[in-house]
Amino acid sequence: MAKNAGNQVVAEAVQRLKAFAEEKEDMEVEFTAPLTEQQVTALETKYSLKLPPSYVDFLRTHGTFKVLYGGAELIGMEDPKHLHAAAPDPSDAQEGDDPEVEAAINEALFFQRIDDDAVENFWCFNPRDRNAQDELGVVAYQHDETFGLPKLLGTKNAEHFLDFSTHIVDTINEFIETYAEA
Question: In the sheet where 27-31 sits, what is the strand order?
Fold first, then answer.
């Protein structure tokens, strides 16, 4: 997907989310202020890592968001200052005592909770999996399963790659579909 086309698809998904939340009784979506270029640079310096362009575009355009329903957060993005702080203890994952799994979990950037705060399930970036467009692969961390490290790019099974733009559009679409029926 071309950068501008990807930005447009993401912007349309964000608009659908906002419109959906406005129509649902007792639901609201809250966005933080977009980040400045200087704030993004500070984050990249903090993590000693170039953040994926689609994630940076989202932060610079929309900020982060959370959806509240009856006061409870249903989905939300972590504050980018806490991408590592949100990381769960590797010992909470199956095979988390495997040095390779532990190292991968400790390197990952946890940007979105999958469930509520009582359950440590996250979406995260895998810094070991960067494509030619500088995107980082998005993987799931389920606290009671093996950390979802996919085969890395350049291997025979590289079709796994999921970038942030595709992930966030899928997340928004699945959220709307799920709660449209509620």
Answer: 27-31, 65-69, 72-77, 109-113, 122-130, 136-141
Query: Sign of dihedral through CA atoms 52, 57, 60, 65?
Result: negative
- Please state, in angstroms and rounded to a whole number, the distance separating the CA atoms of residues 73 and 137: 25
Give residue 120's pLDDT.
73
Q: What share of the chain is helix, strand, coil (3-state, %, to 5)?
A: 40, 20, 35
Q: What Cα–Cα distance (Å) separates residue 108 from each residue in 68, 84, 88, 104, 122?
A: 26, 7, 10, 6, 11
Residues 124-154 have pLDDT tens digits of 998 888 888 999 989 888 777 666 655 544 4
Residues in the chain: 182
DSSP 168: H
Task: Determine the residue type at 56.
Answer: V
CA-CA distance, 40 to 45, in Å (whole number)? 9
Task: For 58-76, write each residue's pLDDT tens digit.
Answer: 999 999 999 999 888 888 8
